[in-house]
Amino acid sequence: MSLPLVLMPRAMRPVIRDRLAPKVDLVTPFEADNPDATIARVAASVRGIAALGQTVDAAYLDRFPALEIIANFGVGYDTIDAETCAARGVMVTNTPDVLTEEVADTALGLMIMTVREFGAAERYVRAGRWAADGPYPLTRGSLIGRTLGIVGLGRIGKAIAARAEAFGLKIAYHGRSRQADVTYDYHPSVEALAEACDILMLVAPGGAETRHMVNRRVLEALGPQGVLINVGRGSLVDEEALIAALANGTILSAGLDVFEDEPHVPQALLTMENVVVLPHVGSASVRTRDAMGALVADNLLSWFETGRPITPVAECVGLLK
């Protein structure tokens, strides 16, 4: 009996290859002289795809008539049209849980850096200004007495909230609906949440429904002492509105791990002293990325061995019935 053919269009963590190679026929076109030709040669037989940033729509699915499962590397899967996949009987999986703690740690670190201006303070020391000009100016921001508003109180949002409570922050949140087992204050819109908090933390997924959910009105509601932290998706924020708000004092500062057109970051954000920028490193430790890779492989293997993946996305749960 032939092994299931799995396509890995882009280079991924070695742990994925190590786990898959003995049990599937793994095709890695990125290693070929002509990747497109390699994909075309096997497309009709591909049963699984290990996906990293692929845009999967109806046209993409048309190329793989035998496709059964797409195992996405990452908890977010906004580049994959999961509803269309489900309608065609194609399972989609992601990698939740294994990156929750790492991303929550990053979010808290970014928040503290931004509020206390630690990035700017380090640059001050490295430039020799401490010795030349005296102590770094007192920071305008402080965590004391602040309210943290979390947009997207899922696994990661809850882990962030638990950490933030240890810092004495009051927690509020916005999501699609109020969560019955959550005691934090709920607000029915992002704008209402921004009015009620002074640090707005974005942990929501990307996609058309959430694109530019943080716009000029939300930033105005956040106010001149407000801080925006984004560890969700760059598409959540209208970057032009954010740049204007930072420049004219509509909000105090911003900490950003994600951007609309990664890896390209607007020059204005790079030159502003009241902005902390990170290169999308929320889950970027060897330990966590390897755990994510292992889950990608295990989802594929579980599907081929048992007909059930480990972590199906919500849109595809119905395929298991």
From TrEMBL:
Protein name: 2-hydroxyacid dehydrogenase
Keywords, alphabetical: NAD, Oxidoreductase
Similarity field: Belongs to the D-isomer specific 2-hydroxyacid dehydrogenase family.
Domain D-isomer specific 2-hydroxyacid dehydrogenase NAD-binding: 108-282
Coiled-coil residue windows: none
Organism: Roseibium aestuarii
PANTHER family the UniProt entry points to: 2-HYDROXYACID DEHYDROGENASE YGL185C-RELATED, 2-HYDROXYACID DEHYDROGENASE-RELATED
Annotated Gene3D superfamilies: NAD(P)-binding Rossmann-like Domain (3.40.50.720)
Domain D-isomer specific 2-hydroxyacid dehydrogenase catalytic: 27-313
CDD domains reported for this sequence: HPPR (cd12156)
InterPro entries in UniProt: D-isomer_2-hydroxyacid_DH, D-isomer_2_OHA_DH_cat_dom, D-isomer_DH_NAD-bd, NAD(P)-bd_dom_sf
